[in-house]
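Researcher: Next sequence.
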Amino acid sequence: MDIKTQLKGLDDFLTAIHGEETALSGLLGSLGFEAAQVDGLRAQHMQAIAEQFIEVVRKRLTWEDRDLYFRLLVRRFGLDGEPASALEAAAGALGVDPAYAAHVESEALLRCRYKTALQDFKKELHRIALSELSRSGERPAKEHILDQLNRLTDLRAAVDLTRLDYESKRAGILKQVQAELDAIQAEYEPLLEAAEANAAALESEIKNGVLLRGESVRNEHFQATYVKGRVSWDNTGISEYARAHPELMQFRKEGQPSVSLRLAGSAK
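Model: Next structure:
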């Protein structure tokens, strides 16, 4: 097995699932370690980190003792340290149809592209890096961490002061802007109220005109629709009248009964 080939294959795999050029060594720099710690990991622990990370990928792509997804990616990217294989060659080595191998590869990469998968990969890489640093005896001095805490105190204080300054200037600008907005409102509010009142009065006149005319009228922008009044009957009066004039019942139609269900708590 060639470690350089394995690392290159792993970088190609990471690039494929992130959608942009990504390297394992680059991801190590995004885990929050100090620069010297990252340099140490890159110089002395890359093989161990790569092997453990590939095992993380294997576990994600293996279920119920089926690991074809993982074995195909191993051959396609050279994750075992052997040269990467073309799709047809990888399919032949695994004894599967090339078309099915293409489907498997697509599905395997998709499973690794999910947001949760990428987050898990980063979390596992952080765990692996911590483990490697611990095994190599990397244990920062307490004084070093105390010094960092003191620096953090100063940095947070600077952030708070900057935020206070920002809020103060922002409040001043808002106060000035609010005064201008109040002046504009005082100027336009009576104009808007008058315009709304005029429009409402004209709408009433239009409605009355359409009611008197008895038909809908429209122009390019508005339509005043005339709707005839709804005809309704006094059911009680009709029923009393029908008792004296039973021939009226032939015109009575009764629909089929129906039942609707709803939660008892929703009835009011």
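Model: The chain has two domains: 3-139, 144-212. The chain has ten helices and two strands.
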